[in-house]
Amino acid sequence: MTQNNNIDNTRRNFLKLTGLGGAALCLGIYFPANGSPVLVRPSELSDSEIELCPWIIINPSGKVTIVNHRAEMGQGSFQSVPQIVAEELEVDMKDINVIFAIGNEKKYGGQITGGSSTIRSAYKKLLKLSASAREMLISAAATKWNAPITDCYAESGQVIHKPSGKKLHYGKLAEAASKLEAPKEPKLKKISEYKLIRKPLKRIDTPLKTNGELIFGLDKRIPGMLVASVERDPRYLGKVKSFDAAGALKIPGVKKVFKVKMGYYEYMREGVAVVADSTWAALEGRKQLKVEWDSSGFKHWSTPEIFETQNNLLKTEEGMILKTQGNPTEVLSKTDKKLDVVYQTPYQSHVAMEPVNCIAHHKGDSIEIWGPIQAPGWVQDYVSKQFKIDKEKVIVNMTFLGGGFGRKAMNDYPYEAVAVSKELGGPVQVVWTREDDATLGPFRPGISYRCEGTISNGKMDALKFRMAGQNNGHWSGAPKDKPNGSTSEGFLKPYYESVKNVSFSDVLFETTIPTSFWRSVYASTNGFAYESFIDEMAHEAGKDPLEFRREHLKEERCQKVIDKMEEVSGWKKRGKNEGYGVAITECFNSTVGQVVKVSKNPDGGVKIDKVWAVMDCGWYVNPDIIEAQIEGSIIMGLGAATTHQITFKNNIVEQHNFYDYPMPRINEIPSIEVHIIENEEDAGGVGEPALPPFAPALTNAIFDLTGKRIRTLPFSLGTV
Fold first, then answer.
1. What is the number of helices (H) and of strands (E) in the chain?
2. What is the DSSP letter of 493?
3. Which residue stretches of 73-117 are H helix?
4. End residue of a domain, out of 378, 397, 431
5. What is the CA radius of gyration of the chain?
6. pLDDT grade, residue 25 (50/70/90)?
7. Residue % of the chain over a pLDDT of 70
8. Closest alpha carbon to 509 in 349, 308, 264
9. Is the pLDDT of residue 47 over 50?
10. Residue 61 Cα distances to 24, 304, 524, angstroms
11. TM spans, by residue (predicted)?
C-alpha cells in the first residue's frame, strides 16, 4: 500500500493515479432492483442503475488498486476491504494499492461510514466483484495460450498454466480481460478455503501511521490555502450581537475577520472567523476578539433541570409506543410484586483524537472539499442545496480520520469551511480547537429510562420500558408525533419470544442543546438501562443472572454466546469475594456478551480485574481488527460510565478539555479477553456493538460484590 502525500485526489488526479487507460482492467458492480449483481466497466454505467462497491483496477504493471469508498477512522476499512478483494482476486496484500474514492454515490453507492456498515453492507458484493475479475483474467490467459480454462488457475497476481507451468501476471492480461463479458455467477471460495480472510493480518496503514507519513485532515495542505479559527456562540441558538476585530487584526499574519454561519441541519450557528496565514496566527487572533452574543429567545437548560424534567415526564406520561406485544400495562396494574425503577445516562462529547477540521475552496461555480469526513454523500447533498450549486460540482475528498465516532458524519463543519472560503474567495482550512470540539457539540443525548417489570413462576411476565431523551432526528425535521425509532435499540430480539408482554415507548423531551450520533448511538444508553433491569429481574426471581438470560434467550446463536461466556469466564467457579456481572446486547446485526469481574480495592472502592467479551458478528474478515475494536469499545464505555460526562449551566458546557473531561488512563484499563463465535451467518457490525454491554456488566458486577445497585452514570469506582 502506498500513499502519495503530494497528490490531490481530484477527478483528474484520480484517473492519473489509477492508470485508467491503455491496458487496464477496471470493473464496477451494480445491483438492479431485481436480478443478480452485474459486473460492468465504468463506460457502461448509467446514472440510473449504479450502486457500486469499490472498483478494482489493474494497470499494465500488474499493480492492483482498490478504491475504498468508505472512510478510514481507525476502524480498519483500509485493511479489511482489500483483504476481502485480495482473497477472491488471488493477489498478495503487498501488491495492492489502496486509495480513497471521492464522494460520488452514483458510482459507489452509499458512502456513509456509520452503523458499523462498511463490511456488512458490502462484503458479498466485494467477494463477487473480485471473483468475477479473477475468472475474467483466467479466461484471458486461457485464450492467449489456446488452452482449456480448467487447465489454468490464479495465484499471487498471476495466471498459471498447470500442465506447462507457464505464467502471466495480471498486468499482461488486463487489456484482454477488460474486453470479456463478466461472469454473472462466479465461483466463490468456501470459508475453509480462505487464505487471507479470517486471518490476523497486520494492517497496511500502520507503518504510515507510525512513521508520520499518513495524511489526516489536519495534515492536508493545498496551494494558496489560508487557515481560519472561528469563535462560535457557546449557546447553539445564539446570535452575534456585535464584535470588535481591532485586536485580532494587530496579530501578525491575520488577514481578515468576519461573521460566519455554520449550518447544522435546519439551523444556523453564528460565529466570527479569524483568517490568517498560519494556524498559530489564527488562534492568537481569535484570542483578541471581543464578541457580544445575543442569547435571547430560547430556553437555557442546566443539567439538574434536564434530568428532573425527564423524571417528571416519566412519572406522568405514557409516551408514544414504538413496539408492543401483549398488554404489559394491564399485567403490571394487577400485581403489587413488580419492579419500577429509573436509570439515567449523561450527555457525552465525541472527543476524537483529531479535532474537527476541514478544507474548502468555493470556486464560484463549483466547490471542492478535503478533510476527515465520514459521510461525503451527505456533505454533497447539504452543501449543494445550501450554496445552490449542482451536487455533481461539489467534490468531496476524504482524508484519514483521527477518530470519528459519528461526529465527523455531520455537515456543519464542511458547510462552515465552504462559507469562509466563499467570503475569502480562496481555499481555507478551518481548524477547531480541542475546546471547540468538546463544548460545541453535537452531543450524545442524556436520557432517563423508567423500567417496570414483574416475575411469574421464575420468569419475566411483563416488561415496560419508557425512554425520555432527545430524539436526534428532530434536528433534521423528523416528526415529533412519532416515537424515536431507536427506543428499543440494543434489546435482544429473542426476548420477545419468551416474554409475552413487552412495550417500548418514547416520551417526548426536547432541549435547545444539539445532539447527534455517538458510537453505537442509542444502544450505548439503552443497553445500560435494559440489561441492568434484566439483572434486577433475575435477582427478583432468585436466579443466577447468566442462567436467567439463558432461560429467556432460546435462539441458538444466543445460546452459543452464553455457552462461551460461561466457559471462558469460569462463571460457575466464581468465588464468594468476587463480583461477576453479565450483560448481552445486540446492535447492527451483531450480538456481544460481556462478563466483568471486580473486587474490592484496598485503597477504597472497587477495581476491575478482567473483562471477557464474546462477539457473534457472523462472517468476518480480520480477527485482529475485531479484537482491537472490541477493546476500544470497552475502553470508551469505561470512560462514559466512570470518568467523564458533559454537563450544562444555562446551556453552556462546563467541560473544556481532557483536564475536566478525563479519558481512562492506561493504568486504569483492565485485562480484556476477546472471543469470536465462528459461523457462516451474514456479517454484522464490529466497530460499535461491543460498547453497550460494558456499563451494565460492570454495574451488575458491582452489585454482585457490594449489594449496591448503580442506576445513574457516571459513577466513581473509587467511591462505590
1. 19, 28
2. T
3. 77-89, 105-108
4. 431
5. 27
6. low
7. 92
8. 308
9. no
10. 10, 65, 48
11. 14-33
Nearest to 167 by CA among 145, 184, 194: 145
Identify whether residues 166 and 123 lie together within a single domain: yes
Please report where in the chains the cell 479473477 appears, as a residue. 134
CA distance 115 to 108: 18
The helix-helix angle for 118-145 and 170-178 (nearest 10°) equals 90
**Three-state SS at 425:** coil
- How sure is the predictor about 66, in pLDDT bands with cuts at 50, 70 and 90? confident
Residues 652 and 528 in one domain: yes
Which structural domain range is residue 229 located in? 217-296+356-431
Q: Which residues contact 66 (CB under 8 A, 6 or more apart)?
A: 54, 55, 56, 57, 81, 82, 85, 96, 97, 98, 99
Q: Is residue 4 part of a domain?
A: no
Looking at residue 254, which CATH number applies to its domain?
A: 3.30.365.10
The answer to whether residues 41 and 159 belong to one domain is yes
Q: Is residue 427 part of a domain?
A: yes
Say which residue the cell 449557546 belongs to. Answer: 235
Going by pLDDT thresholds of 50, 70 and 90, the confidence category of residue 26 is low
- The pLDDT value recorded for residue 650 is 97
The CA-atom distances, in angstroms, between 714 and each of 135, 347, 447, 549 are: 55, 10, 12, 26
Residue 27 confidence class, pLDDT cut points 50, 70, 90: low
Are residues 363 and 331 both part of a single domain? no
> Strands 267-276 and 290-294, how do they pair?
unpaired
Other beta carbons within 10 angstroms of residue 34's beta carbon come to: 5
The distance of Cα 368 from the centroid of its chain, to the nearest Å, equals: 24
Q: Give the pLDDT band (50/70/90) at residue 658.
A: very high
Looking at the structure, do residues 393 and 460 belong to the same domain, yes or no?
no
DSSP H/E element including 565: helix 556-569
State which of 93-97, 266-270, 435-439 shows the largest mean pLDDT. Answer: 435-439
Do 203 and 268 have their domain in common? no
Quote the number of domains for the chain.
3
Distant-in-sequence, close-in-space partners of 309: CB < 8 Å, separation ≥ 6: 509
Residue 42's pLDDT is: 38
* pTM as predicted: 0.92
Q: Which of 431, 462, 481 is the last residue of a domain?
A: 431
